[in-house]
């Protein structure tokens, strides 16, 4: 019997919501850290046909650790409750809508803004607001526009302008919308952009003066809508990268090699050139099975004067989930972080076909100025998720801080929240906070600083 790789091993969903207080840890939790490390991912409920299950369609579950005063005060995991999720859990919907056609609570991103916590997805499904303790409030109006768009999973906050940017698509629409919000989440301007073929624009990039769009040969297909993933590779569609002023206006398009941009590390302006560092999936990407892809870290240098793009490889190790120090977003930078993650390798578990050597889960630190990469290896069974950079209390350098990620501990059969020193990246972790349960491999998350109740008395 074939086991669906996204329902087994490190992907296997957990079945219970857990609250644990005063978590044990080894090492030292930096005393200045005050906030929550949050991450979300698919955690399906009520699967009717396991063989046909697609990982990205699982109900969203948020996993969070609360840190304060050198302690890990709690761990919580909670499903994001759409009407369907509430029904499957046998709970009242409490006003949460249930649309049979598009009843999908967010499962891609969780972030904080203006003292609120949001779970996000894409395709016109509204963000959901969560409480501080990760319970579901319900759908909210973050980035919602009259045309039906809303803040998407890869919204970008620019710390220099205090703006939140989204590039949102709708299933079946040949337009995307650039949405700009202020630091409270209020929409201040929008730009509607023609996108022929309805390409899968999962991410985008910002520079100081421009928005960068990625037009890939992965297009909406109404015929595939009943499968739940209505995007397919189309060889006839030219891959392009677009450049538009942040204030709106005409998009200049430049042809690039056939590929799909998974996620953006960062982008910035270099004279009249624009530099865009991305994780790129090669030609033929199949959105129904991420695991068959081998994405790499690449650089596009867009020469606006000459009207051409130079394409270079920064690191050829298979990787995803690139992150940068958020204070360097849309500006020149030196360091980036990504994960060599099991999503793009055969699964662990009872039908593990991998050789005994040749694969190790790792967090990667890229020095894009020197062109070097450091790897903190977690081993064959130490499944690692996205690493998030958190600055030190009074940082004196771009990499003065920590990288935090959930990592599976095969000896305990449960997850640790690992805190690495970004400046001693290959050294022993600063701390490992021991969670009481396993955290399945998931998608994105953030460090959300702050305490809604103010300082401890």
Uncertain segments: 346-350
- End-to-end distance, in Å? 58 Å
Q: Mean of the pLDDT scores?
A: 91
Shape: globular
How would a textbook summarize the main sheet?
A: 5 strands, antiparallel
Key words describing this protein structure:
single chain; 457 residues; mainly beta; five-stranded antiparallel sheet; globular
Brief digest:
About 0% of the residues lie in helices and about 40% in strands. With about 450 residues, it is mainly β.
Can you describe what's shown?
This protein has 457 residues and is an all-beta fold. It is 1% helix and 42% strand. The chain has one helix and 32 strands. It has one helix at 83-88; strands at residues 19-21, 25-27, 35-42, 60-68, 71-79, 109-113, 116-120, 128-130, 136-139, 156-158, 163-169, 175-181, 187-194, 205-206, 210-215, 218-220, 231-233, 240-245, 252-255, 260-270, 273-281, 296-303, 308-315, 320-324, 335-340, 361-367, 372-379, 388-391, 401-409, 414-421, 431-434, 445-449. The strands form eight sheets. The protein has a five-stranded antiparallel beta sheet with strand order 1-5-4-3-32, with no helix packed on it. A hairpin with a 4-residue loop joins strand 22 (296-303) and strand 23. It is globular. The N and C termini lie far apart (58 Å).
